[in-house]
Amino acid sequence: MAITELSRAPDIALVEKFIEVCLEQESKNDGDHIQDYNKLIRRMVKITEEMKSRPGDARRLLTPLFGHSSWQVRVRAAMSAFALAPIEARQVLEQVRATRVNPYAADASGMLAAIDAGEYTPK
Predict the structure, then answer these.
(1) How would DSSP label each residue in the chain?
(2) pLDDT tens-digit profile of 79-112?
(3) Which distant-in-sequence residues (6+ apart) come within 8 Å of 119 by Cβ?
(4) Domain covering 3-116: architecture
C-alpha cells in the first residue's frame, strides 16, 4: 500500500495492513533478511504515522492486538499504542520480556528500558 493509498484507506484496512506487516516481519526475523526486515519497519512506521494522524488517533485500534496469537504482532502493537494505553501496553511488554523468547523478549525489554530511562517518550 503506497502512502497515498494509506491516506485513503479506512482505519480497519490500516489495522489489517499492520498485522500483515508484523507477520511478514516475523518471517524475516532470522538475521538472513535484514534488508527486508528494515524495509518492513519503514512500512510499519508509515502505517502507524497515518493511524496517528487520524481524528482520535486510530492507533487505539491496535489495543485489541495486545492479545494476538503472534508475539510479533503483540509487541509491535504495544510499542505503537503505548502512548494511548500505557498501562496495558507495559503489561504486554513485561509479559513478553518475562518469556525470554527472543527476539520478542529483547524487543520488549529494549522498549521498556528506553522508556524507563527517559530515553524514549511514546507520543
Answers:
(1) --HHHHHHS-HHHHHHHHHHHHHHHHHTTTSS-HHHHHHHHHHHHHHHHHHHHSTT-GGGGGGGGGG-S-HHHHHHHHHHHTTTSHHHHHHHHHHHHHHT-TTHHHHHHHHHHHHHTTS----
(2) 999 999 999 999 999 999 999 988 899 999 999 9
(3) 113
(4) Alpha Horseshoe (1.25)
